[in-house]
Amino acid sequence: MPSLELPKLPLGDAIEWFVRWLIKNLSAIFDFIREVLNAITGAFSDGLLWVHPVFLIVIFGLFIWLITNKLTALLSAIGLALVWNMGLWSQLVDTLVLVVVAVVIALLIGIPTGILMTRSRKLEGAMRPVLDFMQTMPPFVYLIPAVMLFGIGVVPGLFATVIFAIPPPVRLTYLGITQVPEEMKEMAIAFGANDRQVLAKVELPLSLPSIMAGVNQCIMLGISMVVIASMIGAGGLGEVVMRSVSRLDLSLGFESGLAIVILAMVLDRMSRNIGSGKETPLSRIMKNYKKHRKQKEIEQSA
Amino acid sequence: MTAKIEAKNLVKIYGENTDKALELFNQGLSRSEIIQETGLTVGVAGVDFEIAEGEIFVVIGLSGSGKSTLLRCINGLLMPTAGSLLVDGKAVEKLNDEQLRKLRGEKISMVFQHFALLPNRTITDNVAFGLELRGVPYEERRERAQKALVSVGLEEWKDKLPEELSGGMKQRVGLARALLMDSDILLMDEPFGALDALIRAEMQEELISLQREIKKTVVFVTHDLDEALRLGDRIAIMRDGAIEQIGTADEILSDPANEYVEKFLQGIDVSKILDANSISKWPREVIRETEGISVALHRMKKADTDYLFVLGTRNKLVGMILREDVLKLAKEKNKSIQDIIKETNTVQSDIIMRDVYPELRNAEKDLAVVDDSGRFLGVITHSILLMTLDERKGGDGIAES
């Protein structure tokens, strides 16, 4: 049988060459990004760790109560107290900071990208395979260029987490806006709105539930990536998980895993309610305030 | 007089790269041929019309006939592929974005079939939406919006959300939102299409009485013929993107331009559309109150009738005289008819034909039709009523009872 051996296409080599080129020519930029992100995450972690855990748990509990309800807040506080009790408090704070910073960056890039996709069919067509690639590429693979670009530490972990967590907010923002009824957009245009007004007054408010689902998904993916990111020195709870795996330490593994589950559940319940229009203590306070102001107005005019 | 809105050979073809489709259209190919050839749909196929200021212009047609497309060309939501659309003499397709926004924000308002109320805003904020886009300060626009809500009878609902309102109320909100803009032109895209029959009739009445006050130029799209005939000062019937006939309700009903229009008109209930005035006839003879009995007898004989309507100055209806009374009077040698004038049954000229039936049944003789100031306009007899029904139904001359 004749051999069908063709020369192998140097795909992987091409990517490697590209990343090396980036390092060689743009290292100043990557260094700058690393310094900035290091400073931000460091300041956050230090700030949160400076406060006593009990005090912080109470503050978190109150905040969660404001945007959800009493039961969720109580259970969240108990969960966080349990993590403290297991001696994983500082790791929890590190992980929380990592997730929050990564999610903020992912949303800052993802939501505008989703909006731009609704404006340009070309961009939408180009982004679709890119998003598929980002979502299905095994997340471990991102660690390699991350380390090459940023070295070992928190920042490459952030980089990998952002890439992994960005597709849901992009997709769900795009989906939410395209699902706004055509008649609503037409109405705004017919009353003299420009493109920016259509976006701000019709499309974004009406697609808010979908966008918030994207935010929620972004947080969840961020948490799952944080464990993987600890392989390149991102620290936090993931590092404890890795250590327990390498030592086959079941008790430590269970505890650190449970701490991640608790963090995930707390963040999920918090972000799930936003934008759903459900009544929360905060919305009640706002309503009462508005009522109070109106009454004052009536009294004044009388 | 210049037209408020004018279309000149207006063509709208959907899709990109319309050049080839336009060329085929200019060669006279039909809509289906153009779809087959290019895959593009011709929405509006070369339409000409003029709409005068203050008139209600109804565009009617089956779904897909291009009526909504035509409407959206007026405020530039859709741009014509060829031809021109003029508002106050200015071509809409030649305006830049800024001028177009100004036109929409100040001169033309629109009412939508499915109301298009923003579900996250209160009724007041929905009504104030146009003013908000215009940059009117918060307090002022809320105040004006609430005044507009009073005028449509919804002031109690001002802080509610749209989901809490019924369909008819929602469309009142939509109407208030459009009226608040104080624009000259009102575009209405099947505004009552999503409402049930009773509410629809009510809203039509409201629109008619509202129009008497505001006198806007209204372009009203509908697929309901009864609605078109009821509201329209003039009506345009569309098919496959082209206008088959433009005219007043009377012109279209009495003189359909072609077979399609005739078919379109079939199945409508004329008794709901025609009013007493349009079916009445001038009697063969009438008599003035100053005339004498010999004249009366002569005319009764000539017209072969046993009664005459008596008219005063400026055709004011005074009453009627009966033949038997005239004969009695003749024996007494009294020459004046003043003493024998009797009251007569009358109907107002604008009541619809359906409501004429019971009046006619109760009448002693035939029904006199009078206008607001009591002037005599004509008479309705049983035979006139039956003949009218028969004619409009396209029967063969003999009325069946």
How far is the N terminus from the C terminus of chain A? 101 Å
What radius of gyration of chain B results from the CA coordinates?
27 Å
- Uncertain segments of chain B of ≥5 residues (pLDDT<50)? 394-401
CA-based shape of chain A: globular
- How many alpha or pi helices of chain A? 13
Query: What topology, given as strand order, has the largest sheet of chain B?
Result: 6-7-8-3-9-10
Mean pLDDT of chain A: 89
Helix content range of chain A: over 70%
Tell me the total number of β-strands of chain A: 0
Class of the largest domain in chain B, according to the CATH hierarchy?
Alpha Beta
Query: In terms of structural class, how would the helical and strand content of chain B be classed?
Result: alpha/beta
Shape of chain B: elongated
Overall average residue pLDDT of chain B: 84
Q: H/E element string of chain A?
A: HHHHHHHHHHHHH
Alpha-beta content class of chain A = mainly alpha
User: Largest interface, by Cβ-Cβ below 8 angstroms: which chains and how many residues each?
Assistant: A-B, 18 and 26 residues
The CATH topology of the largest domain in chain B is what? Rossmann fold
CATH architecture of the largest domain in chain B: 3-Layer(aba) Sandwich
Structural account:
The complex is a heterodimer of chains A (302) and B (401). By secondary structure, chain A is mostly helical. Chain A has a single domain, classed as MetI-like fold. Helix content of chain A is 83%, strand content 0%. Chain A has 13 helices and no strands. Chain A has helices spanning 11-50, 53-67, 70-85, 89-119, 121-136, 140-150, 154-165, 167-178, 182-190, 195-229, 237-246, 250-273, 281-301. Chain A starts with 10 loop residues before the first helix and ends with a helix. Chain B is an alpha/beta fold and 401 residues long. Chain B has 2 domains: 5-107 and 183-268, P-loop containing nucleotide triphosphate hydrolases (Rossmann fold, 3-Layer(aba) Sandwich), CATH 3.40.50.300; 277-393, CBS-domain (Roll), CATH 3.10.580. Chain B contains 18 helices and 16 strands. Chain B has helices at residues 19-26, 31-38, 67-74, 97-106, 123-127, 129-134, 138-151, 167-180, 197-214, 225-231, 249-254, 259-265, 270-273, 276-279, 293-303, 323-331, 356-362, 382-393, and strands spanning 5-13, 42-51, 56-61, 82-87, 90-91, 108-111, 185-189, 217-222, 234-239, 242-247, 287-288, 307-311, 317-322, 346-348, 367-370, 376-380. In chain B, the strands form 4 sheets. Chain B has a 6-stranded mixed β-sheet with strand order 6-7-8-3-9-10, sandwiched between helices. Chain B has a 4-stranded antiparallel β-sheet with strand order 2-1-4-5, sandwiched between helices. A 3-stranded mixed β-sheet of chain B has the order 11-12-13. In chain B, strand 12 (307-311) and strand 13 (317-322) form a beta hairpin. Chains A and B meet through helix 9 and helix 10 of A and helix 4, strand 6 and helix 6 of B.
